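Annex B.
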Amino acid sequence: MSKTKKRGTAIAVAGAVAAVAIGGGVAWAAFTQQSESTAVAAGADTFEVVTVSGTVADDSLYPNQATDVTLTVSNVNDVPIKATRVEFVPLTDGDITNIPNGSRTYCRGKVTLVTRAVDVPISAGTAGNPATGTITLEDGLRLAKDTDNSCQGMRIAAKWKVTTETAA
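DUF4352 domain-containing protein: predicted structure tokens.
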């Protein structure tokens, strides 16, 4: 093959490669744009207050005796929750009844209530059908060993706060 013919073939091949590299052999043209959506409404739900009720295993204590406290937590939220802490509400003289007013402060000081960290899962519920969870505080309420006769017959209205968080 002559030099001129080789050069012509090489130029033709180079031109074909360039045409494929530039446009793949096909011409493309496109217009582009971006559009913004309308506002998408979302927000945080309201975490409704749970209700807590309680009972004691023994409501007639003697000095140096304790009783278990059982708290029932009712969840009306449509999301599962978890109870994480139970903390007693400090007693006042008004929480001690059925004894003379003069003995209430002394007797209140003879009652020990417990605070505890807990990990109690509670399912999702509704207002018409709340889900419940139970927390038992072993020896949650105790009457001191040195309690004297002035506290005989007293009634104690103890309360606890339960901390909950969403568990979804």
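The domain at 51-166 is CATH 2.60.40 (Immunoglobulin-like). The radius of gyration is 38 Å. Further annotation is deferred to the next reporting cycle.
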